[in-house]
Write a structure and sequence with these properties.
582 residues; alpha/beta; Elongation Factor Tu (Ef-tu), domain 3; Rossmann fold; 7-stranded antiparallel β-sheet; 46% helix; 15% strand; disordered N terminus; cell membrane; FAD-bd_FR_type
Length: 582
């Protein structure tokens, strides 16, 4: 049971503990700010006017400031890739936390949505209270112009109100378009609406500049609830008309400020004397302090990425593979990448603004500068991209190198960026599980091992690939055969354990032949028995830590995740990793 706990802590526990810490931090910040505005003397008069609406609006605003500050940091891909690849983060566990950057980004986004609802509800109450509780005594506190003013004017005729309404609409579009259903059915909607974040931040800076809520600045001279002799006499004394005529100066002479008041009187009645009227001042927009740094950092990174990727790559070859897969090989000056990383492709002729991430299947080395990606043709973008690259878009029945002289469209590459699969070579034993086109991140690892494996920590690799049709195995059949033959020649046939699973049996005879004879003996029908597979790997690698890497359907991912957290009797610990584009 102890081993199961350690496995859970290594795989999922760190994420859950961090999320619990993050939730606790947000709740603590909300409560602390709520008490500050509920009990703080500088907000006494404003609290008298607005009640709990003031406390809730300011408390939720503090949480929004924190999350709007940090939601951009997980999207700084260059910084994350630098931290992962540098020696600054030497701990493997710490580097694995970087893989949760997308989870942290989503967590901040959900927190922003939840507390935005609280913030909006509180300000709707505040707008109503500003109208009904118009304070004629302290005019500086009022946001309304007169008692009973229509609260809708405060929402639509003021800068804070109007910008708030527009931000709610922008946030609603971003949140609804981020749902899984919309991202899968129409990725363009998600991509375009998510880029409204820049409009949201600009409106946020204007929103906090209105200075609607004010605090008292002279608490020493005017403690809340103090006794003001001048004001009390002017309001309460009634001077007979005859005295006004005989002593016209009587009504204008102020009450002497230095008039001694018996101290026992003040102490007995718990009252202090005011020396002046209260003075109020708007808060300096604290939101600027919160978001200016991350926003500038993100903008600088985007500018750096734009400069780095503004030169188009040289496409060396395009290969049409079976089952609607397109391989693009290209070259770029000073391009360096590690196995498991991904790049973002942008083709202006396909879409002026849209870009998509693709895992590198071939990385540049000291001997060759070529790198490549495999593109699964699903969706409008990939279909248009294929049609531009291939002479005839229907030539997908066999592997067909395109060597004819032609003018390829301009293609820009942004990256590379880090992913969990960079760690595959840093374990002594790794288990790599791919489903269909999910094999792409492992292809770069296999290509790297083909160039040389002795310089890496990895000493045994279990490679499991599950496909629906036999033709899909031909994407990397040549690579697998070359790696298998190389390891046999070096007397290390046990270095890699290849298992290919075919979930459908139609056309199985097509792979049988001399060319792929090494793979035919490793081709199995059906789906893997995952529990038996894990038990066998644990038995053969007692008391070792095994890296589990998965890129495929969620169903397979959940099974592997659960098995990685379970205990075994061999002292073997599995650390789970899953592909997730930031």
């Amino acid at each position: 049971m102890a081993l199961s706990w350690r496995s859970w802590l290594a795989n999922e526990g760190s994420k859950h503990l961090f999320l619990f810490f993050w939730l606790s931090l947000n709740v603590w910040l909300f409560c602390k700010t709520f008490l500050l505005y509920n009990q703080g003397l500088q907000y006494y008069y404003l609290h008298q006017m607005l009640g709990l609406g003031l406390c809730v609006s300011r408390a939720s605003a503090s949480v929004l400031n924190l999350n709007c500050c940090l939601v951009l940091l997980p999207m700084c891909r260059v910084i994350l890739a630098f931290l992962r690849g540098s020696q600054k983060v030497a701990s493997k566990k710490t580097r694995r936390l970087l893989d949760k950057s997308k989870t942290f980004h989503v967590t901040c986004g959900v927190t922003i949505c939840i507390f935005s609802v609280l913030h909006v509800a509180a300000h709707l109450v505040n707008a109503l209270n500003f109208s009904e509780n118009y304070n004629e005594e302290f005019l500086a506190l009022n946001a309304a112009n007169y008692r009973g003013e229509d609260p809708r004017k405060l929402l639509f005729a003021t800068v804070p109100g109007l910008t708030g309404v527009i931000m709610v609409l922008v946030l609603f579009l971003m949140c609804t378009a981020s749902t899984f259903a919309i991202r899968v059915s129409n990725y363009d909607i998600f991509w375009y609406t998510h880029n409204l974040f820049f409009v949201f931040y600009m409106l946020l800076m204007l929103h906090v500049s209105g200075g609607v809520l004010k605090y008292q600045t002279n608490l020493q001279e005017h403690p809340p609830g103090c006794f003001n002799p001048n004001k009390t006499l002017r309001q309460n004394l009634t001077v007979p008309k005859a005295f006004e005529e005989l002593f016209p100066d009587y009504t204008t002479e102020p009450f002497p400020e230095d008039l001694p008041v018996p101290e026992p009187f003040v102490q007995n009645h718990f009252m202090r004397i005011c020396s002046e009227e209260p003075k109020f001042q708007s808060h300096f927009p604290e939101t600027w302090f919160w978001i200016s740094g991350p926003l500038c950092l993100y903008c600088v990174e985007r500018l750096y990425r734009y400069i780095r990727s503004n030169k188009p790559v040289t496409i060396t070859s395009v290969i049409s593979h079976p089952s609607n897969v397109l391989e693009v090989r290209m070259m770029k000056d000073d391009f360096e990448a590690r196995p498991g990383q991904y790049v973002i492709l942008h083709c202006p002729r396909v879409s002026a603004l849209e870009s998509h991430p693709f895992t590198l299947t071939m990385c540049p080395t000291d001997t060759k500068a070529t790198f490549g990606v495999h593109v699964k043709i699903v969706g409008d973008w990939t279909e248009r991209f294929r049609d531009l690259l291939l002479l005839h878009s229907n030539q997908d029945t066999e592997i067909l190198p395109i060597f004819q002289q032609r003018r390829y469209p301009k293609l820009y590459v942004d990256g590379p960026f880090g992913s969990p699969f960079e760690e595959a070579l840093n374990y002594e034993v790794s288990l790599c599980v791919a489903g269909g086109i999910g094999v792409t991140p492992f292809a770069s690892v296999l290509n790297t091992l083909l160039d040389g494996w002795k310089c890496y920590k990895l000493r045994r690799l279990y490679f499991i690939w599950v496909c629906r049709d036999i033709e899909s195995f031909r994407w990397f059949a040549d690579l697998l055969c070359m790696l298998h033959n190389k390891l046999w020649q070096e007397n290390r046939p046990d270095y890699i354990n290849i298992q290919l699973y075919l979930s459908q049996t139609d056309g199985i005879q097509k792979i049988i032949g001399e060319k792929y004879q090494a793979l035919n003996s490793r081709l199995l029908i059906g789906r893997p028995q995952w529990k038996l597979l894990f038990d066998d790997i644990a038995k053969c690698n007692r008391r070792k830590t095994i890296g589990v890497f998965c890129c495929g359907p969620n169903k397979i991912s959940k099974i592997l995740h659960k098995l990685s957290n379970s205990s075994n009797s061999y002292g073997t610990r599995f650390e789970y990793n899953k592909e997730s584009f930031s």
